[in-house]
C-alpha cells in the first residue's frame, strides 16, 4: 500500500521537472523540432512591425477623456457681507421737559414729520410773549430816535447858516469876535447832536435785533417740544413713555429706513480693481432669498486692520422683507473671461503640489497643465489656464504622469 503514493510522487516530480526545467526541450519535442537547434539571436531576427505596434499599444494605459472647449464666463467677485439699513437715527430730545404724549410701539411705520414725543410747554409760552413784548417796545422807539436825528440835522443846518452870516459880517466889521465864536460853537454842538442821535438810532436798532433773537430763541424752545420723525421708516424702539422726564440728549425713539436697503461687504485689495460703481450685483441671504441691485459705493480707503475695502450694494426692499443685519453672500459682476467647466474630480496635483489637470495631446501623451480655479458650482468647477480645446483626463489622471502614452476613451460631457 505504501508503494502507490511513492510512485505518484515520483511521477509528479518528473512532470514538474519537465515543465519547468526542460520546458524548451519539451516544447520542441511536442512540435517535432530538434531540441539541439540553437535559438536565433535578436540581431539575426527582424521584428515584425505589426507585432511591435501591437506590443506598444498593449503597454499604453487606458484613461477616460473629456473633450472640453473654453466658454465665456462672467467672472463675478464673491464676497461675504450683511444687510444694513439705508438710514438709522436715534432721535433725541434737545430740551428739558416731561413727555405728555402716548408712546408709539416699536415696529410702527412713521412718515416724515410724524409726532414721536410731545413735551410739556411749561413757561415757554410766557417767555415767548415777553420776548414779543420787548420786540414791540424796541420797535416803538424807532420813530423817536429817527425824530431826534432829524432834529439834530435841522439844528446843524441852522447853526451853519448863523455861522456863515456871522463870518461875513465879521469880515465887514459889523459883528464882534464874540458873536462869531458863539455861532461856531453852536455849529459844533449841532454836529455832536447828530452823532448822538445816530448813536441812539443804532442803539434802538440793536435793541430790535436783540428782541428778534429772543423771540427766535423762545420759538425754538417751543418747537423742540414736538419731536418728529426725520424720514419715512420704522420704529426700532418704543418712543419715550408718558410722564418720563426728558433731558437734552435723552432718547425719544430709534427710526430706521429699510427701503431701499444696503448690502455691505469687504473686498480684498487683490480684487478691488475688478469692481466698478454701477456694476450689477446679486446677493443670497442666509434664508435663501435672492436679491439684485447695483454697486453704489466703493471705499477709497482700506480698513487698517484687514486691508479690505468696503463695498455697498443698494437693493430695493419695497415690501420690507429684508431685515437689517442679515448675512448675505454677494456676487458682483466683473469683466468676463474664457474658461473651461470640468468635473471637480478631474483636478489633481503634480509632484510640486500645483493644482491642475492632465491632458492628452495629439500624440496621445499625457501633459500636465497648472490651472486657476475661478468658480465652484454644484455641477462642476470653472478653471483657466488650458488651451481653447483640451482633451482632459477625467478618469485615471492620478495613475499617469507627464510623458506617459495612453489610450484615451472619450466621454460625452453629459455623462
From TrEMBL:
Residues 128-169 form a coiled coil. NCBIfam families: RND_mfp. Belongs to the membrane fusion protein (MFP) (TC 8.A.1) family. This is Efflux RND transporter periplasmic adaptor subunit. GO terms for molecular function: efflux transmembrane transporter activity. Residues 267-334 form the CusB-like beta-barrel domain. The keyword Coiled coil applies. Keywords: Coiled coil. Residues 87-253 form the Multidrug resistance protein MdtA-like barrel-sandwich hybrid domain. It comes from Parasedimentitalea huanghaiensis. GO terms for cellular component: efflux pump complex. The keyword Coiled coil applies.
